[in-house]
Amino acid sequence: RNIDGDVTYTVRAQKGETQIFNGSKTKTYGYNGTFLGPMLQFTKGETIKIRTINELDQETTFHWHGLEVAADADGGPHDALQPGEERVIEFKVTQEAATLWFHPHPHGNTADQVYNGLAGLIFIEDENSKHLNVPDDYGKNDFPLIIQDKLFDENHQLNYREARNEDGTIGDTLLINGTVNPKLTVEKEKVRLRIVNGSNARNYTLKLNSGDSFVQIGTDGGFLNEPVTVQEVTLTPSERAEIVIDFQAIDATSDLALVNEDGSVLLPFDISHSNGVASELSTQLNDFTLTAEEKNLPVNKTVELFGMMDHVTINGKKFDPDRIDFTQEQGVTEVWEIYNKPDIMGGMIHPFHIHGAQFKIISRDGAAPPENEQGWKDSIAVHPDETVKIAIQFKNKGLYMFHCHILEHEDNGMMGQVLVE
Ligand code: C2O
Ligand code: CU
Ligand code: CU
């Protein structure tokens, strides 16, 4: 937090070189540094002023993913900053404690810029989160994990143009917080991991290689009502999950790791011999509710996701910055029904994201969502032939994007606009 006059934060999009591999330098982008970005800390109720500066040699935007702000502060594709340009945005934090993130959103060029390293974190705190019994000692028992996969060429360069895949660039190297082969040293205590899928396209199903369960305490936009015991969590691009692993309860000898579905190791844990704090988790974390009224609202908007490669569309159309696809009234809850229409190849999961609001999942194919999705969401995985109903309300006015968060699909036009009036 660099207080500069009444500016709370200064965020610069920069390019540079990063030592990701020993002995070599990779050309990367970053915020306030050469790779990834800082963690911005907001408290509900405060007014935040951010000075954003584009120090790249191409246009970019500063988008606060999951933040409920007026559209003119949202940093969508209409808010491009040219090289050398800067802009101060100001907003009041009106939403509850959550782990959000920020990334660029320039028209047609989002995937490239995120892939090269532009991504940062936002932690929101509120009165509830301050009083909860959840691990919150940052860097000791509370860690963010930005998971990304990248493809490096023989010179350890990212080379997006060559790596690019129209269905979403997938890499063979996994990085957490920009580090290859990461290892996390923890004490024997409960440890909170705020996991962000910051990949362009890859989905992760994370579990412990020991088979031990853990608890999920948060979704994209806040705490779940209660800790939910799970064996694994699946995150599609841009989704977040906060989990707590109890390293005292796990009888781990060695080799304990967070692994992906296929068994590949994402993060080995090094458990030190010392005992950390032995505290119980709060059993009541939040008071999120999907009301009977919300459940029974008629469907106001239907969204059909379709296609693969560069043939992706929403309701049969590609993004047009001059077309408004939907309008919605500020402060009014509406139901959006999102359908993923399969193609002859079967189709693929599209992670659907809406700007400027957190929403509630009403149903997946008519059934209540699983317990660990009964919380605020801003992105959801929609499977082929699946219909998801959500209840959404915008607190602010303006023009907001909704799109597939496979970044190459977004750049290929799988995006629309809702005008909130
Ligand atoms: Cu993560 Cu349109 O954004
Ligand atoms: Cu967003
Ligand atoms: Cu998609």
Automatic annotation (TrEMBL):
Keywords: Metal-binding, Oxidoreductase. Transmembrane segments: none annotated. The keyword Oxidoreductase applies. Residues 15-128, 151-249, 297-421 form the Plastocyanin-like domain. Belongs to the multicopper oxidase family. This is Multicopper oxidase domain-containing protein. The chain holds residues 78 to 498 of 498 of the full protein.
